[in-house]
Amino acid sequence: MTVHRIGWREWVALPQFGVVAIKAKVDTGAASSSLHAFGLLRFAADDGTDRVRFQIQPRQRSRAGRVTVEAEVVDERTVRNPGGRREVRPVIRTTLQWSDVVWEGEINLTSRDEMGFRMLLGRKTVKNRFLIDPGRSYLGGRPIMEEG
Length: 148
Hints:
Structural class: mainly beta
CATH class: Mainly Beta
Number of helices: 1
Largest sheet: 9 strands, mixed
Distance between the termini: 38 Å
Number of strands: 11
CATH topology: Cathepsin D, subunit A, domain 1
Number of domains: 1
CATH architecture: Beta Barrel
Strand order of the largest sheet: 2-3-10-4-9-8-7-6-5
Radius of gyration: 15 Å
């Protein structure tokens, strides 16, 4: 497996959700990855699987690019939030892309509205795949964003 060098913040795509760019903080202090999701609605699908429908607003302080997503809940995990309190969060599995690197990863869903980044890439997501350069940013390039 090739190991790629990334910065402490990067633009990541979530192709299965139609999200071409979301700013992510690479956070080795967090075990798992988190995504800002709101309007979460959990339900049982006709086939009996546990699913969640939610919205993603990829751009901070902008409604541009807002998408509604539906995904299977693959797990439920207790995570300590930034305030130190434990939260139970649904976990989904999806495709992530940074530059030309594409991989599958698990992401927990939570409100990150007050946080500086809509997404965190935790150490389990970057392990054996990336070498983090904490003094650099956007080593994968910057996306061309439409105005909105």
